[in-house]
Write a structure and sequence with these properties.
The protein has one helix at residues 16-23; strands at 28-32, 54-58, 62-71, 85-92, 97-102, 115-122, 128-134. The chain is mainly beta. The protein has one domain. Strands 5-4-3-6-7 form a 5-stranded antiparallel β-sheet. Strands 1-2 form a two-stranded antiparallel ribbon. Strand 6 (115-122) and strand 7 form a beta hairpin. The chain is globular. The model has no long low-confidence stretch (mean pLDDT 96).
């Protein structure tokens, strides 16, 4: 594995199953056993109904770009070779929104509502990042 010079996420006790799932190429989200809603980021209680009964559940990894920004400035030296790059809010088909990069497309070709799907990028032995790419027709 190549050296990774960007900030590396540190899983919390609440998010550890999420990171474990990514390492196995599964996108897991908390799903409420009471109201059946999904949410992200992980937390101990359902944000819709306040239930403490929920289950980590695999989601499709498909969604749409809700919003995005293209970075043209280097804010961390690890990103120096990647500008410009896109950071997007992805609204998953199951409902939750998450922030990630959109790759495999020039940033000036991105559009809100563009269909995307997750890909998995291992960065260390323990951490895999979810990135998104456009769905090809």
């Amino acid at each position: 594995m190549a050296e990774y010079n960007k900030p590396i996420p540190v899983p919390s006790s609440e998010s550890k199953p999420y990171w474990d799932g990514l390492r196995e190429h599964k996108l897991l989200m908390p799903r409420c056993d009471a109201c059946e809603g999904y949410w992200f980021p992980p937390s101990l209680l359902c944000p819709r109904c306040n239930s403490a009964k929920w289950t980590w559940t695999a989601v499709s990894g498909r969604g749409r770009i809700f919003s995005y920004v293209v970075y043209h400035r280097v804010y961390h030296p690890g990103f120096a070779d990647e500008v410009p790059y896109a950071v997007a809010v992805i609204e998953l088909d199951e409902g939750p929104r998450m922030i990630s990069n959109v790759i495999g497309i020039a940033p000036d070709k991105l559009a809100c509502d563009m269909e995307v799907e997750v890909i998995y990028q291992p960065i260390t032995e323990a951490i895999t990042l979810p990135k998104f790419k456009p769905v090809t027709a």
